[in-house]
Amino acid sequence: xxxxxxxxxxxxxxxxxxxxxxxxxxxxxxxxxxxxxxxxxxxxxxxxxxxxxxxxxxxxxxxxxxxxxxxxxxxxxxxxxxxxxxxxxxxxxxxxxxxxxxxxxxxxxxxxxxxxxxxxxxxxxxxxxxxxxxxxxxxxxxxxxxxxxxxxxxxxxxxxxxxxxxxxxxxxxxxxxxxxxxxxxxxxxxxxxxxxxxxxxxxxxxxxxxxxxxxxxxxxxxxxxxxxxxxxxxxxxxxxxxxxxxxxxxxxxxxxxxxxxxxxxxxxxxxxxxxxxxxxxxxxxxxxxxxxxxxxxxxxxxxxxxxxxxxxxxxxxxxxxxxxxxxxxxxxxxxxxxxxxxxxxxxxxxxx
Length: 352
Fold this sequence. Notes:
InterPro entries: Diminuto-like, FAD-bd_PCMH, FAD-bd_PCMH-like_sf, FAD-bd_PCMH_sub2. The protein is of the alpha+beta class.
């Protein structure tokens, strides 16, 4: 439900769009208890209003999803770059080539260094280049990728399921802040099977002091900006946060009705910039620094993923997200008596 009512993006999204764009229909229970089905052809206003609505139009009970054919392996090419100019140029070229690349992502390790990864599915693999990275004794994926900054370009064949879960064991790179020695070979061999800990367990064991420390120093944000604004965005993220690695995941944003669409009337490539970790920027303050990034994202017609802390005012939230169709459906379906509006579910100040 979160992939539809919220948002879902992955490294094939430059080719297929967000998860919502892979859906053919939704079935919802509305405020009056009735069950309705919607699609592009049948009840299209509701169909386009559902994504990003966070359960404020109805309860999602089923979805029809278009399936993408899969193969046994992912052939993964690692391309290290050592200047910001090369990162922007190569990343854009690879993201704009969906016929060649089934998957595209980049991990940015500093202002001037990154590893761009492009991949395609295959049933055949060179035996000496197969790397089942998902096994618990294997190095964390982001640490493995970082080695290509020194050893240069490379190719591996990764089992498909292992590829899809490449960031799972280390929670991208957040586990290094929880277990600093977690990537140590001895720890991986003896205890790697028991990580990552369940998020619910981490929350349960957090006292108020630890929770406050996390809120003041730990950043978990995904900002979606037009690919053409990537260079500016990286500078803003460095100046305000200085968190590395950064995750870059391109996606096609289609010109369709709903809360999220390009500024113009054409489909447009966007990029998800994921910042997860402890901010090292001088003068970092959680709320003011996040507010500055939110302001930049609004300025370039971007969007903020709403699972994370957002400090937007109600007016700024309406500026970032197109509420026209959403409000029309709220009124038509008489949602006010049953469901809060999106802002009241996601804004940090309102939730507190």
